[in-house]
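Quick one: structure tokens for this chain, please?
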Amino acid sequence: MKIKGLNEAQLLALLQKVLPKATNDPHLATAIYNEVAKEVQLMKNIESFEKFCEKGAIPDLEPQTVTGLQNELTAHFGEENVAITPDEETKQVAVEIVLPDRTISSKVKVDPSVKEEEVKAPFVPFPVALPEDPELVWLLGRRENLGPDEAALSLAKIEEEFWETKKGVELQRDRVEKSFAEFITHVPASALTDSGLRRHYKEPEALRTLRLLKIGKGPELAEAKA
């Protein structure tokens, strides 16, 4: 989504800068910011779902597959707002998402060829550490076809976006430290796997040290050989 040339992160950063100037009530400013952040994230989730309905599919109507779809949708829209109904006859899944201002009704296609298309590269170790505490290592994983540099940049982007999600904003409102440790603990696993990353891995490889960006929004890569 683009709004007058601004992406979501830029829009929220601008709002965070302008609100304190528009009102002397910090609670009101925070409430407005949180509501806008929630709406922006909701719009992104709706856009992603609509694209999936248009171009994507699930491989079958097996209970495990349908449950996986249900879990993914409820993570974005809330368990009480999502209803899905598999239809063996039409080989589709009817989805209804109830939102405060509207109800979205759509269908997800079933395509057995998706199984073949979704064969992905295996995960390999991707340990990372922060420069201020190089002895504390997070043993992450990355897809074999995702290079260490690319994986680090993806991780930085995911962290930046996470703190602007509904969950990230709620954590900050609850005074949870905006740190890499809290991010990696609370970020949804799907946000990592969609970019070829994993929260845990067993075997180590050459260590990558993550440095914070100057703007303070996330880590960027600086290599350090273990």
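The beta strands are 82-87, 92-99, 102-109, 123-130, 133-143, 197-198, 208-212, 219-223.
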